[in-house]
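Researcher: Next entry in the queue.
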Amino acid sequence: MTKQYIISLGLLLCLTTDNLWATVRTVLNVPSGLAQFNDIQSAADASVSGDTIYIHGSTTTYASFTVTNKKLVYIGPGYATQKTQALSAKIFHANIENYSNLPGSASGTEFHGLQVTGTLAFGGPFTNGVAVNNVLIQRCYFTGSSAGVSMTRGNTTYSNYIFQSNYFHATFFNANASGTTYVNMLFRNNVVLHQGTSNTFMPSFNNSTGLHIDHNLFYGTGTLFGTSANNPNFATITNNIFINVAGIGNTQNSLYQNNLTFSTNHSAPWTMGSNYDGGGNMNANPLMVNQVALTANALDVLMDFNPGPGSPCLNAGTDGLNLGVIYQTNSPDDWAQSRNGVLPYLVSLNVPNAANLIQGSTTPVQINAVKGK
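Model: Structure for this entry, 373 residues:
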């Protein structure tokens, strides 16, 4: 077990940072675990901007933490890594804040390969608080009615957020702050299962420019977009599949191009209100590989979300790809890899004849690992 940890940490040190002098800190919330810290807060407090925090998988959810004016990268092992006895790293609330009266900035923060059961909140307090910008959230699994993303600092501008290859279940986005503008928000290659009526998934981005919702699969019984002043405005909505969800047409002044709706209460949202029809949109049965499960709103992070034979989604995107999430080998968008972490990981470690080893002797070790993609 110790050998496996040392090898995986060595790979981590080689591959995770874009700054040769940045530090990688490890966290495991088991007191006897082989990590530098037992909680994320302590690791963040010891870090400086540019550092990376690797959060080990655990059966226990990590406690909430707050980070002020530090750009850090948080990396988990993936939420359903393809290896034996894989554990995800579950985090609760994270407050990522910027104070205008303090040096440094939290802009550039990244989250990878984590399971989020609370809220990732970006911004700062009413006094001296400013927006956190240039954020990447990738390959994470948000689950639970209190899980989501919050960008609610008023009278400021949030810019350059990327939400890519995540699975959202019964979650929400809160991005409607008074006097705040949202610029260049990319929501791409995600699966959203939104169920129930208590929360609208995206009652947000009313005052936005450059909001692009591209190559996602939305399904479930819940309401997708908010109404009145609480809905996406001036969005570009392309290459998506919508199954069962309500409220698709609640957007305003938004361009719809090459989308498919099926069994939704708004079958042609591109014709509603002030929205625009950019062509290539359709209301049809998508004939997915797992169409029965999707129609039943089944929760399965390992489901195959590909279109099946004869599907109208095949090669129907503006880019020539299938509608919905992207399956493309060796691409950073490959949905088949979204469950895995961004780091290499060990599948197995075999020491032949381990029971008869003699101290000081030499023996071959067989390591099977998967390259991070």
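Model: The first helix runs from residue 2 to 15.
Researcher: Noted, moving on.
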